[in-house]
Structures are given as C-alpha cells and as structure tokens.
C-alpha cells in the first residue's frame, strides 16, 4: 500500500482502485461473523473486532502493512486500526463509511443469509430493556432505573465511540457464524498471489 500508506481512511473509489492495483492488499472485515455472512466484499477475510487484540502480535508480524480494514460504518475498523497502529502496524487503511458506503456506491458484494446487523441488535435490546423497565416499574418501584442505566450507557457509548452492549452481543452464537480466526490469520500471512 505505497500510495496511501500515510492515509488513515479512504473512500470507496480509492479503496476499489487500491484493491485492483495492488494484489498484496488484504481486505480484513472486522464485523461479526454473522454480519460478514450477510454481505461482504469479494476476497475479504473475516476477523471480528473482538478477536483482533488477541492476535495482534501475529497480525503485526505477518501483515506487512497491507491491510484495508472494514466494518459496517467505519467505527469498529477504526478501533482495529488504532490497536494495530499502537502494536506497530501503522500502514493500515480504513474504508470510510464501511460497508454502508460500499453498498450505497453500488460496489459489488457477495450476499449470503440475511441477518440483523449488530447496530440493529443493540437498538432492539436497549429499547426492549428500557420499555420493559418502564412497564415493570408499575409493579416494581425503582425498575425504571434500569432504563436510566441503559440510557446512560448509550450516552457513554456515543461520547466514547464504543459500545459495550455491541461487544457483548457480538459474542452470542447468533453472531459468531462459521468464521474462524485461525483461518483469517492464515490468509493474512499467505502472500496475496497464492490466495484463492
């Protein structure tokens, strides 16, 4: 990734040109396995964000700075990029806007079984807990504070650009899919020309 080694984020047009012009660029999708199975970029590998930190040393040792990181909106990919940069791999690039911008631009995707995105799951769980706590407050005084706690957590998540609920939900079997970190890591260490 010589042309954009100093960049931290690229748009869809630049990302497509980078992939087409440099066979050593590896697209690493840090969404959950379920999100990846729903739709992903052809040739991308899946290494969910919650597994990136556990494999930092191997990624840094073997990747050589040829990673294009993607997620649904760009936030998780940016978190992965930060971890990789702090661990000694500064040349990674994030797809600005993530899969949302890729799909909106009309770029090709591989589609699989449709599942809910992690963001949608967070909204369902947070809203459900808040609603249940308000209803429960009719019989259990003080139950509304559970909803207040969830609201405070959402405000914190917004201010810090992190989401503890999303990280917890990403560990559920529904979101695990069939992705295997070992398989993804093997793709990182393989020379791009030998990938199939």
UniProtKB/TrEMBL annotation:
Pfam families: Rhodanese, YgaP-like_TM. Keywords: Membrane, Transmembrane, Transmembrane helix. The chain crosses the membrane at residues 122-140, 146-169. InterPro entries: Rhodanese-like_dom (IPR001763), Rhodanese-like_dom_sf (IPR036873), Thiosulfate_ST/Rhodanese-like (IPR052367), YgaP-like_TM (IPR021309). Residues 21-111 form the Rhodanese domain. This is Sulfurtransferase.
